[in-house]
Design goal:
The protein is of the alpha/beta class. Helices cover 49% and strands 7% of the residues. α3 links the parallel β2 and β3. The longest helix has 23 residues. The structure holds flavin-adenine dinucleotide.
Length: 466
């Protein structure tokens, strides 16, 4: 599809250009300049060694893969959100004197070539927790090694670095409450870093190289897919826009402009509109917002305005997110297996049969006949978002009422959600299936009872089913 294939061709560079060395910075799920610890370490290194600086993002092959159940791994709304984030990041970087190269290529193949082309001794990047990401880190470190280049990683997607956890990873508590109590008692979230005030220039040799930014091509490709699929439905809770600026504006709105944070604990089970919950998740998933920054903004709010159980509850939920990250890091590939984190003895996940494919399809299309489930699935399909209350119910319904393999639901969410985060998604699905952390055989929701409780007047069902 892409006309422009990045290649390793080394053009004829002048002696000075070849002597110049550069640092490569690889953006992953950390599309931000504020509180990006790997970025700050990279800039320091480049300054100390008088090196040029090149920032990169890869639309890697996963974007066009399907999962074993046939779901596209990258849905159009998420791709759109990421591309918007990249457009903004690119402008921000250019304003600070730097350069961002977006390539439609496999980072594990291209980064070692780039390291050679631009004479780099280090690639800096964020560390992530799930198996595909950690495998990339291992493969890349190995491939770079043969080019005399090292991979330097830092924690940016989590509140804590592994070294700041008050226990060894292997002693991660099995139950969220125990985890929360331990970190609340004995760990602290480091203060967020400011954005850099300037960035070093890109290598001079970049102009002569075979590499050029492919962001516009990618945008055109996904715009076409979006035309086919249809724009996000206007009934969406909110039309999240990619990029750190929109994410920070959302926080300003939810905290400082409207004080909605003060009633979050009472409203967080809502279903309609943009006020019931923070809606930070899409920006957190791509790393446009730093969890550490949000954490410290809640504390600043409490210092400067008001502290109550709702202001605390935003941190309580961020700790749920955090817990799933460490669960994913500890258990690795097991999180994606049918029996999840459970031992042999507890294995009872239903088998995937023909009937369940039919059940699955009706569920996915929002055609089960259970109005609360159908309304939520319609919202997901047409907007890429669903409330937490909705997610719990549709997951429980698929697993416990329809008897379908929970991984089909998790894969479908991966395809559709704009806020898809592998650890949060697979962790929550496994949890509801009873094969996650704190395994209990039945986490079944009475979806009719839930509809009566959370959508008593039927407004949510009417919104999506009429
Ligand atoms: C089956 C299922 C799948 C899910 N998949 C994802 C996913 O792919 N990505 C994702 O970010 N969240 C996922 N969640 C968690 C949760 O539903 C969303 O984080 C939340 O609905 C996002 O809306 P919000 O930002 O307004 O959340 P708020 O209620 O405002 O919470 C603030 C933040 O806390 C974190 N958080 C809240 N609840 C959870 C939770 N249960 N698990 C992990 N983090 C949480 C999120 O980062 C969220 O942005 C899933 C939940 C379920 C039940």
């Amino acid at each position: 599809m892409m006309s422009h294939q990045a290649s390793s061709n080394q053009s004829t560079f002048s002696k000075e250009e070849m002597a110049e060395s550069s640092i490569l910075f690889w953006f992953r799920h950390d599309l931000r300049l504020r509180d990006n610890r790997s970025l700050s370490a990279a800039l320091k290194h480049a300054k100390k060694h008088n090196q040029r600086f090149l920032m990169l993002y890869f639309c890697d092959p996963l974007w066009r893969q399907t999962d074993p159940f046939g779901h596209e791994r990258m849905g159009v709304y998420r791709a759109q959100f990421i591309l918007e984030s990249l457009q903004e990041l690119k402008l921000e970087i250019e304003e600070l004197g730097g350069e961002l190269l977006v390539l439609d290529a496999d980072p594990i193949v291209e980064l070692p070539r780039l390291a050679q082309t631009f004479n780099s001794d280090y690639v800096f990047a964020s560390r992530h927790v799930c198996t595909e990401e950690t495998r990339q880190e291992q493969d890349l470190a190995q491939a770079l090694d043969s080019k005399n280049c090292k991979l330097a990683l830092a924690w940016n997607h989590t509140l804590y670095g592994q070294q700041n956890l008050p226990f060894a990873l292997g002693d991660l508590p099995d139950i969220y409450t125990q985890f929360r109590k331990q970190v609340e008692r004995s760990a602290s979230v480091v203060a967020p870093l400011d954005k850099p005030s300037r960035l070093q220039e890109a290598p001079q040799a970049l102009n002569d190289s075979a590499y050029s930014c492919q962001l516009q091509d990618l945008q055109a490709e996904w715009d076409e897919k979006l035309k086919e699929y249809g724009q996000r439905d206007q009934r969406a809770t909110m039309l999240h826009k990619g990029g750190a600026k929109a994410g920070e504006e959302r926080l300003a709105f939810y905290f400082w402009d409207t004080a909605l944070i003060e009633s979050y604990k009472e409203t967080r089970n809502g279903l309609i509109g943009d006020r019931y919950s923070t809606q930070f998740s899409p920006w957190l998933a791509v790393g446009a917002l730093s969890p550490r920054w949000i954490w410290h903004e809640t504390l600043r709010y409490e210092d400067e305005v008001k502290a109550n159980s709702s202001t605390y509850w935003v941190r309580f939920e961020l700790l749920w997110r955090e817990y799933f990250q460490w669960v994913a890091y500890l258990y690795g590939a097991a999180l994606f297996k049918p029996y999840g984190l459970t031992s042999e003895l507890q294995r009872k996940t239903p088998k995937l049969g023909r009937a369940s494919v039919k059940h699955f399809q009706r569920w996915a299309r929002g055609e089960t006949g259970n109005e609360f489930i159908d309304a939520n699935m319609k919202e997901l399909n047409l907007t890429g978002f669903m409330s937490n209350r909705g997610r719990q119910n549709v997951a429980s319904y698929l697993i416990h009422d329809l008897g379908v393999d929970w991984r089909m639901g998790a894969g479908y969410f991966e395809s559709k959600l704009i806020d898809y985060d592998p650890a949060a998604n697979w962790g929550n699905w496994a949890y509801i299936a009873g094969v996650g952390n704190d395994p209990r055989p039945q986490r079944k929701f009475n979806t009719y009872g839930q509809a009566e409780r959370y959508d008593a007047r039927g407004e949510y069902r009417a919104l999506w089913l009429n």
